[in-house]
């Protein structure tokens, strides 16, 4: 089984498209196969699957990351609806430090995004009743859970939606600005 892997403008962030086989009954797809991913150059040890549901379009979750020994690689796929997925490079020594990339991930496109350690991550739902499932390489650790303000003017992320239409948690509304972050990679 092969898998297509394409790097984005920041090459560590990748779009992954597993093969999908369909007929009159429906379809079958191996959305993750450790051997096939390794053959495509993606060798990670995922330890947990998470499932997130957002009722309304315009729900924004992020920009989140975990630091230290609890840092996480994430493999995100959308099983219903569409999302804009954003990754911000927070690796201090990186030539793309403070830059971001985004991609639309959807159930219809059958694509996934790999967001590696060293990136803050966010999703914005583009349709109501959107669900994502994502694999991570580290367990959740509240003491190592950090974030960055989603609408930081220094990052200037193009979310493609009016700020007053974004639905946020209180936690995401209060995240620090990029210039005030103290936990980098």
UniProtKB/TrEMBL annotation:
Its job: Catalyzes the epimerization of the C3' and C5'positions of dTDP-6-deoxy-D-xylo-4-hexulose, forming dTDP-6-deoxy-L-lyxo-4-hexulose.
GO molecular function: dTDP-4-dehydrorhamnose 3,5-epimerase activity
Oligomeric form and interacting partners: Homodimer.
Active site: 64 (proton acceptor), 134 (proton donor)
GO cellular component: cytosol
Biological classification of the source: Bacteria, Pseudomonadati, Pseudomonadota, Alphaproteobacteria, Hyphomicrobiales
EC number(s) from the headed UniProt entry: 5.1.3.13
Record site feature (Participates in a stacking interaction with the thymidine ring of dTDP-4-oxo-6-deoxyglucose), residues: 140
NCBIfam families per record: rmlC
Keyword Lipid metabolism appears in the UniProt entry: no
Pfam families, alphabetized: dTDP_sugar_isom
Entry's family note: Belongs to the dTDP-4-dehydrorhamnose 3,5-epimerase family.
GO BP terms in the entry: dTDP-rhamnose biosynthetic process; polysaccharide biosynthetic process
Reactions it catalyzes: dTDP-4-dehydro-6-deoxy-alpha-D-glucose = dTDP-4-dehydro-beta-L-rhamnose
Pathway where it operates: Carbohydrate biosynthesis; dTDP-L-rhamnose biosynthesis
Name of the protein in its database record: dTDP-4-dehydrorhamnose 3,5-epimerase
PANTHER family: DTDP-6-DEOXY-D-GLUCOSE-3,5 EPIMERASE, THYMIDINE DIPHOSPHO-4-KETO-RHAMNOSE 3,5-EPIMERASE
Highest rank taxon of the organism: Bacteria
UniProt keyword list: Isomerase
